[in-house]
Amino acid sequence: MPTTYETKTTTTTSSPSPTIGFHPEYLRTLPGILKVVEIVLALITFICACVVYWGSGQGWVEFVSMSAFLCTLIYLILHLINLISRFPGPQLLIEFIYYCVFSVLFLIAAIVAAAKASAHSSIGATAFFAFAATAVYAVDTFFQFRAWRSGQDGMATNTTTTTTTTSTTVEHGQVTY
């Protein structure tokens, strides 16, 4: 009358995304390179706009360039330390909307600066760099849109464990499950 028990356990684990920490390899990706270029162009635009007082419109160009500089710098830092993937919500969609807004704001700032460009050469340089920033932000907007539409998400994959247990009992030559 012996009874035998057999237990089979299967464990499936999905690996999480890279941990929070400094990930310099992000700077070698296209989004990382675009963010660095955007930061540099926004800072140059701001510096060129501050060189000489040119009246109305100057404050707008300074506001757009400095706010874009700070927001893009924050996004770059969040991506470098992989903290962006830990935030709830559709981060690619949020970032796509951010780039859409700053593309339009930089275009308006570039047009404002171009309208006053004949007053001083630094205003012409401001317009040039604002148009360059508009182009880079538009390219980044395009790639953000493609990433969002393809279903890539910047979210971390949670670790899940599935355990399946099967017991087999053998009594008097009969098998019961």
How would you explain this protein's 3D organization?
The protein has 177 residues and is an alpha+beta fold. The protein has a domain at 31-151. 55% of the residues lie in helices and 14% in strands. Strands 1-2-3 form a 3-stranded antiparallel beta sheet, with no helix packed on it. A hairpin with a 2-residue loop joins strand 2 and strand 3 (174-176). The longest helix is centred in the last third of the chain and has 29 residues, at 121-149.
Question: What is shown here, in short?
Answer:
With about 180 residues, the chain is of the alpha+beta class. Helix content is about 55%, strand content about 15%. The chain has helices at about 30-50, 60-80, 90-115, 120-150, and strands at about 5-15, 160-170, 175.
CA gyration radius, whole angstroms: 27 Å
Going across the biggest sheet, name each strand in turn: 1-2-3
How can the largest sheet be summarized? 3 strands, antiparallel
How many distinct helices? 4
Outline: elongated
| Proportion of residues in β-strands | 5-15%
Residue share in helix: 55-70%
Distance between the termini: 17 Å
User: Low-confidence runs (pLDDT<50, min 5 residues)?
Assistant: 154-161
Give the topology string: H per helix, E per strand: EHHHHEE
State the secondary-structure class: alpha+beta
On the 0 to 100 scale, the average pLDDT is: 82
- Could you give the count of β-strands? 3
